[in-house]
Amino acid sequence: MKFTLSWLKDHLETEATLSEILDALNMIGLEVEAVDDRAAYAPFVIAKVLSAEQHPDADRLRVLSVDAGPNHNGGKPIQVVCGAPNAKEGLVGAFAGPGTYVPGIDITLSVGNIRGVESHGMMCSERELELSDEHDGIIDISGEGEFETGSSFAAYAGLDDPVIEIGITPNRPDALGIAGIARDLEAFGIGKVKKLNVAEPVAKFPCPLDVKLEFGDKDSLCPAFGLRYVRGVKNGQSPQWMQKRLKAIGLRPISALVDITNYVTFDLGRPLHVFDADKVKGDLIVRHAEDGEKFLGLDGKEYKLTANNCVIADDNGVESLAGVMGGEVSGCSEETVNVLIESALWEPMNIARTGRDQGIITDARYRNERGIDPSFMVPGLDHATNLVMELCGGEPSEAVISGEVPKPSLILDFPISEVERLTGLTVSTEEIISILQRLGFGVSGTGDILQVAVPSWRPDIFGKADLVEEVMRIHGINKIESRPLESLGVVNGKILTEGQIRTRAARRMLATRGMQEAITWSFISKTQAEAFGGGADVLALANPISVEMAHMRPSLLPSLILAAQANADRGYGDVALFEVSHIYRGDNPEEQLRVAGGIRRGTAGLIGSGRHWSGPTEAVGVYDAKADALAVLEACGMDTSKVQITATAPEWYHPGRSGTIQLGPKMILGHFGELHPFTLENLDVSGPLCGFEVWLDTIPTPRKKATKTKPPLSLDSLQPVKRDFAFVLDKSANAASLLRAASSADKKMISNVSVFDVFEGASLGEDKKSVAIEVTLQPTDKTFTDEEIDGISQKIIANVLKSTGGVLRG
Amino acid sequence: MSEIAELETEIRTQIDGASDEAALEAVRIASLGKKGSISTMMKTLGKMTPEERKVMGPALNGLKVSITDAIAARKQVLGKAAIEARLVNETLDVTLPLRPSPAQVGRIHPITQVTDEITAIFADMGFSIAEGPDIETDYYNFTALNFPEGHPAREMHDTFFFNEGEDGKRKVLRTHTSPVQIHTMESQEPPIRIVIPGKTYRCDSDATHSPMFHQLEGLVVDKKSNIGNLKWVLEEFTKAFFEVEQVGMRFRPSFFPFTEPSLELDIQCDRSGKEIKFGEGSDWMEVLGCGMVHPNVLRSGGLDPDVYQGFAWGIGIDRLAMLKYGMPDLREFFDADVRWMDHYGFRPLDMPTLFGGLST
Predict the structure, then answer these.
(1) Are A444 and A511 part of one and the same domain?
(2) What is the C-alpha to C-alpha distance for residues A160 and A19, in angstroms, rounded to an integer?
């Protein structure tokens, strides 16, 4: 909402400075968004043309000698080359010296040389000062009185009027008129409102047409409609003062009749519409539109209406989209001699819906959807009629009022203790009453509970909390003193949920493993979603920002892989990225899963990437991803010696170089592996790439123990004994079963089994491999005899043969 | 006796002349070994008269001890020299650069770090951390928060919608973290003190808007908390978060459907230099919206607004991060550019705590 300072002062008598007014606006909730103090016009001064000679070398140019006052050229005449036909001796106009920015032509002047004659500035046209489109000649105000050269042209022309823009929250339609802003400022103590007295025009004849509200058995979308016919008007340009103000707030003057409607919209927050009465046929009918009915708006566009829209129609069809936009056909023009003025009330929700559905944003819609003061419908019609007669002449008819203007009826019980209860402010009863009255509320009753009548222009006031806000903002929001929140009187315990704790732990763990935390979009393209098991319709956005961001992601991997590729394209091919966030398997809360995922690309393994003197750096692979995944599980409190690793994984992983981490056959904790070449092709990226995802919610929560005490430590006094075995197995046999077989040979004596060598070679035979293990035997009460060790060894060999087919390597 | 002295001189000369441990061992064997010169002389003791033995015994023993000590001493010298000689050849170039450790390379995203900082502060004030789903029903995102159907305030949210389900309703990506207010009131009896960090979504994208961003919601509901308390919480939070002694603050009345009265908070800052400084200067920067929980919202949460009251606020985590740590562009937060993360990210062991300072 924009307005100028002088416009505000039409409604408010005040000595306050601009800065005091701006502070007050902020304090009462009318946030100042921008102020243009019009300093750009300050350099333009009133100047007199002392002489005008023909340019020696150009027929259409003249060389002027200009007196621009004592501050220009030391008060001596200035030479200006000018092409305006009206430039002559004695002309008084607006002068701009070198260095001045001229808004209308977007140029900063410098000393020029035009066909051999120096020019030290410019005498401006109206267009150059953005006063109008007039460019046939330069401004001449010599006929308007006596002027002092060098004085401000802006002050003379009213261009120095500061323009203030405030943000109006959706609850305050009353502040969408300048008069309403003045009322709020007065309540705050800035000035005194100048009351607007609207005289009812003296009707010269009955209105020749009627307004019928025809909603049938449907809900009425128009509580009341006021109309007046004014005959014999002359629709020329509106007066300069009106044009100037409209232009200052960014509106284009059109004609007096149209300008009046725009002016009153901003001045009093009362949208109006004018019809050319001679283009209207029959009575005006206010009704629902018919589905598919066409309407040509005054913006020249054709709209296809639905039964949800409300229209004003006549015998010719739809003439106006009610409360949103007038029609092209019945609009006023220069030729209009008889005019119909509409001032009506509309159903705000319906206006909002119509505007949204049809994609129309107008000043009328903006106000009508927020709520118009119903009590001002008729005075607004009268006021507009008076303005029409004043600016365009003509004779008014009687007003037609259809429907019924709702009377303000909301009276709230207001316990004054609410002010202190909600704000902590102590405000006296007298002050509370005074504030409410200054804002136009009717207050009656004494004692603890007041009866407060809500004024017609405040549709946002429903209950006592709303009244508290009114008292608070006028009394002074910054008078509220801060008060410590009551201490709970205890040390705050653990405040994070298990899921939050795991999220933090996983992040810090992965970062300590040299990975960088990324945060990527929750939505990805359908192709990407499908490549990772997603893409269901239920997770498709109906209004995505782009096709790249159209589906809720089923996995963290695609975004991370694409991010790695983007980094590679910038020259950083060895990257390790992770993210701990949500993925979506459906649109229900329990289908939003907390996942830790990560990828490594190029040589970005745990020990570091790139070439190094200390040894070769290998490309990342399945074991890097496995280590990351297990590290996450450990960080989340899981004993990873308890998990099983199976050589299966979802289809986007390399089938032979990927695995699943599980607890028992059903509980899947995560997947890891190198990516399938098809996946990389699908995403148009290159590897080497490996990745993992761990489902943090699935990790079992450890049982709660009664105490934090750890079990007693028992240390064996006897030294452990180590024995090595190398087995030749089928290539398809896996290490896990070998280790299991070896450990189970004697669960009591064998304390650890580890793999220290894996070898494949022609010497072993086709499809064979050798796996060497180290078995640690821990004696408990006495040292082992050779026989005992030999016995265990034989049992290990037998167990391995039985469960894996592996034989001791000769 | 002169024989002994001569032998001693001779052996000592050999000891001193031994150039390595092997030569010294040869000297030892030649003197103290079974057939060594000293041992041979010792064997002659048995054939001596008691008087001779009385003299020669201690003399020979003395010789044996003296030579044993001399060999040991020489052995130590030679051993040391041998090690020193070996060490000369073992020299490595210690100026060779090592790989940085993984913990040096890894980075935590600023949003994670700032969320941890916020958590540390609010934990100290007795708050818990709550969460809720990203995909919400219209009811929780709007209706329960006092956004009437068709209200212009709904439109200001630029909502992402899903397609209509079988029930004819369409879910939304939550436009704010406020739905968690309702979830919390539904599941927990007051007093409630929670903060809700989380992802939020709006269908809007430019330099200062991102279709996905992070918000921190705060909610206090009990029987007496008022705007004075709200002011204190936000003042203390702001000072603690920006790690300054004082912050100038200014409240302005505003409007949010789910609070009444509603306020916006500006904090004082100095924007004259390259960096924004808080706690000084003459500019004001809008940082958050807040207010007393609207009676209708309390009702939605199943609470009687005449008994319970409280306040709520919402603030952008991304924005807090930008203000504190100086990232210029919101969109870069989600680009996963390793250069950006390396520069603006945090080291994995930089854990924000109040006792150790939020930032280092």
Answers:
(1) no
(2) 15
